[in-house]
Amino acid sequence: MLYVAHSILLVIAVAIERTWPGWLLVQGQGPEVVVAAIVGIALSAGPVAGCFGGLVGALLLGGVEGAWLGGAFVAYMSLGVIVGLMRGSLLAERVLVACLIVVVATPLVELVRMLFAAPPSPTPWLVRVLVEAPYSALVAAPIYAGFRAITNLLEPEH
Length: 158
What we know:
Blueprint: H1 2-18, H2 33-45, H3 47-65, H4 69-84, H5 95-116, H6 122-154
Helix pairs in contact: 1-2, 1-3, 1-6, 2-3, 2-4, 2-5, 2-6, 3-4, 4-5, 5-6
């Protein structure tokens, strides 16, 4: 049941990311809601759920972006596993840690995706990533809290 709930929330995260209102854009960029969602899943449910979240997130984004999928799969699934391995540590239960992970993960995910499909010019890519990373960290706090609450509700023994 937990995986179904995470999948539904990832569908919502992709929809929010792709329909982010123009008046909330910062220099034309919105936050990476899917990255924040994968971090939330991985920190609250572990590496297997994080890998599953990365798989679903990459599939959903691939469906709406029409972009090269290889980089998305590698980046999002790796992110889910690596962050999921932090589950259970004392610091991993803090919202601030989730925000810091998203700040670091956003450029790394974009770097991996760039290796699979390089942009024509690196400067706009770099500016976009530098805007997205802190903006994504701001939205990571409520996203992490939501995934943690759902995980605790559906799997209270963890």
